[in-house]
Prior knowledge:
By secondary structure, the chain is an alpha+beta fold. The chain folds into two domains: about 1-80, Isoleucyl-tRNA Synthetase, Domain 1 (Orthogonal Bundle), CATH 1.10.730.10; about 85-145, Ubiquitin-like (UB roll) (Roll), CATH 3.10.20. About 40% of the residues lie in helices and about 20% in strands. It contains six helices and four strands; from the N terminus they run αααααββαββ. Helix 2 runs antiparallel to helix 3 (about 35-45) and helix 3 runs antiparallel to helix 4. The radius of gyration is 21 Å and the shape is elongated.
Amino acid sequence: MTEDLEAFRFNTSIAALMEHTNYLLAIKGRVEEDAWHRALRSFVTVLAPFAPHHAEEMWAEIGGEYSVHEQSWPGYEEALIQAEEITLIVQVNGKLRDRIEAPSDISEEAAKVLALESARVRPHLEGKELRKSVYVPGRLVNLVVG
Length: 146
């Protein structure tokens, strides 16, 4: 989210906030009180640029000092936030045919092989010539057949 905000990609920053809200709701009650409080403080801090008045009220509610807008931006460790697996979307002629779990560092060739081996994709390739494949790293493989 930090990188999105710095690049003025506000829509993806807000989407990340929404994802994080869902995550927080999923872990509520399953983490230690201190960890929960730190998570809420971080969340309210990054919410502040988008909803300053709500964030200020939330900050006061969780017992924050002075103003949320005076707090430093939370840091993070890049290595800890890297996903080990991704969901690779497989399309045939632009139509979704499968979703495959794959390593996050999968190469283009390996992604293409996984796509071609998929039981849900093979019926859409039978009797057709593979003309082109388009790979968007970490996101999708589109097989163009004719």
